[in-house]
Design goal:
By secondary structure, the protein is an alpha/beta fold. It has four domains: 108 residues, Rieske Iron-sulfur Protein (3-layer Sandwich); 171 residues, FAD/NAD(P)-binding domain, CATH 3.50.50.60; 109 residues, FAD/NAD(P)-binding domain (3-Layer(bba) Sandwich), CATH 3.50.50; 66 residues, Enolase-like, domain 1, CATH 3.30.390.30. It contains nine helices and 37 strands. The protein has a seven-stranded mixed β-sheet with strand order 1-3-4-5-10-11-2, with no helix packed on it. Helix 1 crosses helix 7. The structure holds flavin-adenine dinucleotide (FAD) and FE2/S2 (inorganic) cluster. Flavin-adenine dinucleotide binds next to helix 1, helix 7 and strand 33.
Length: 511
């Protein structure tokens, strides 16, 4: 994208930058031919790519460089420095990439290279792929099959009335009105046959057919189950009233946004990520918010330090917590708690948990255990049937055995990896789990996976919104959380990938 000359910052790389100004792996922001560019010295070479991430337009100059790629500091997308190609979700489109010339000790950025070609490789693989689900994993799988040049048919069967949407945004900018609805759909390649409103009732594993709720069938040569999770419903009198909502689909998001436009007081039931992100967005809209939950927020997932910090943050923004409480009933004007207290409410958002949508897999005889079990290529116990995303459980010894993760980037990376496995690539899925959560002005990044720990080390200050926390068990680092330190989060991801124990030990202690 061409930029207004006034917006361009830093060195004019068309004129050239002294090579000694460029330090190994440190992106330098500048511009060339009217476009914002980052210039990178890496190994023996110099590389120039577009300055903003193709996911959410974050400046890439704050990222890190490793193994020939530049990583985005916000949600850890990864771009090939030589081609601009998006190597890892959550970005799919390439960044611009430029010719670079070194002459007389100056590094000059020249012409923009052509975009990396799609479908140049005639990818082999089965004749037809069916994907059940229309979420993050399904989207990434379909997009990857297309980018890899798969020539067979790809049919995506999703129960929702929409194709894949940017689900994390439902509790954030979409709810506050900062992200308009046209930003929500994920751009699906035209070659993919997306069938919305198509619930699969059963899969016939030996006959290789999906049987839809409307009675039709779709046959496959390879199947990907990307069914995600089912939302746990609140089962109390009044929970089916029209102002009571869970939040998973775009339709849910629309209903809550509509309700928030008219509401004065909301009750959020549950103090997990979705409930409290929705609470923050509702406060931004000026709606009074009470949160009802059985215990302190986030303690089980993030420990007492981060839990107390986020609770205080929400209280500073006017949220009132009712902890050690649960809902007895809901009327059109109030939520009654088991303690007898009554909270006035004209909007109720329920976020009390989810469970993996394993029904199709179980009835087809696939191996399950709190998720669909997959091997390192994401194949289930039945050959030719793969699973990815929130529903899948895989073995990662780095994080203590089999794990199932309910986060966006992991689901997309699994979807992409499953697509490559379907094409016959013999790669093991080894991506390090990563997620983010946003509350007011606080952006939290989590790398790794710690279900239990015996020690949390904290470096910096949570009160100043500038901290690293490391979660350890038996001396091993299982997860690193950063607040206000996005670059350190990226470095932690790299340290996990490389199994660099000394680097991992330093997080939460010296950095
Ligand atoms: C409001 C909200 C905010 C979030 N925020 C964040 C965040 O900030 N950071 C983060 O990392 N993660 C976040 N997440 C989690 C993230 O969205 C999920 O991890 C991700 O969507 C999982 O992708 P998936 O493809 O496994 O499942 P999903 O995206 O849930 O997709 C599953 C799909 O399968 C379909 N399906 C299920 N059964 C059938 C069937 N029988 N037939 C046909 N279709 C079926 C469903 O309708 C759905 O379309 C958030 C989630 C929500 C709801
Ligand atoms: S903005 Fe770069 S990964 Fe999201």
């Amino acid at each position: 994208m061409a930029h207004d000359e006034d917006e361009l910052q830093g060195t004019d790389f068309g004129e050239g930058a002294p090579s000694e100004e460029l330090r190994e792996g440190v992106p330098l922001l500048g511009h060339a031919a009217g476009e914002a560019v980052v210039l990178v010295r890496h190994g023996a070479g110099f590389f120039a790519v577009g300055a903003t991430c193709t996911h959410y337009s974050t400046p890439l100059a704050g990222g890190i460089v490793a193994d020939g790629a530049l990583r985005c500091p916000l949600h850890h997308a990864c771009f090939d420095l030589s081609t601009g190609e998006a190597l890892r979700a959550p970005a799919f489109g390439p960044v611009a990439c430029y010719d670079v010339e070194v002459r007389d000790g100056r590094v000059r950025v020249g012409a923009r290279k052509p975009e990396p070609a799609v479908r140049t490789r005639e990818a082999a693989g089965p004749a037809s792929v069916v994907i059940v689900g229309a979420g993050a994993a399904a989207y990434a799988a379909a997009d990857t099959l297309w980018r890899e040049g798969f020539k067979g048919t790809v049919t995506l069967l999703g129960a929702e009335e929409t194709g894949p949407v940017d689900r994390p945004n439902l509790s954030k900018e979409y709810l506050t009105g900062d992200a308009p609805e046209e930003w929500m759909p994920l751009a699906m390649p035209a070659a993919i046959d997306v069938r919305t409103g198509s619930r699969v009732a059963r899969i016939d594993a030996s006959g290789k057919r999906a049987l839809l709720a409307d009675g039709s069938t779709v046959s496959w040569d390879a199947l990907l189950l990307a069914t995600g999770v089912e939302v746990v419903k609140l089962d109390v009198p009044g929970s089916d009233l029209p102002h009571v909502h869970t939040l998973r689909t775009l339709a849910d998001g629309k209903a809550i946004a509509l309700g928030a436009g008219k509401a004065k007081r909301a009750v959020v039931v549950g103090a997990g990520f979705i409930g409290l992100e929705a609470a923050a967005s509702l406060r931004k809209l000026g709606v009074a918010v009470d949160v009802v939950a059985p215990g302190p927020p986030f303690e089980k997932v993030l420990g007492p330090e981060v839990g107390a910090f986020l609770k205080r943050l929400h209280e500073e923004h006017g949220v009132v917590f009712h902890l050690g409480e649960s809902v007895a009933s809901i009327s059109m004007t109030a939520v009654r708690l088991k303690s007898g207290a009554e909270l006035p409410a004209d909007l109720v958002v329920v976020g009390i948990g989810v469970r993996p949508a394993t029904g199709l897999a179980e009835s087809a005889g696939l191996r399950t255990d709190r998720g669909i079990l997959v091997d390192e290529r994401l194949e289930t116990s039945v050959k030719g049937i793969f699973a990815a995303g929130d529903v899948a459980r895989w073995n990662d010894p780095r994080f203590g055995g089999t794990i199932r993760v309910e986060h966006w980037v992991v689901a997309e990376r699994m979807g992409a990896a499953a697509a490559r496995a379907i094409l016959g690539r013999p790669e093991a899925f080894r991506d390090v789990p990563f997620f983010w959560s946003a509350h007011y002005d606080v952006f939290l990044a989590y790398v790794g996976h710690a279900e239990r720990w015996d020690r949390i080390d904290v470096h910096g200050s949570l009160a100043s919104k500038d901290a690293t926390l490391a979660y350890r068990k038996d001396g091993l680092t299982l997860a690193v959380v950063t607040i206000g330190r996005d670059r350190i989060g990226l470095e932690a991801e790299l340290a996990f990938e490389r199994g660099d124990r000394a680097a991992l030990d330093a997080f939460g202690r010296t950095r």
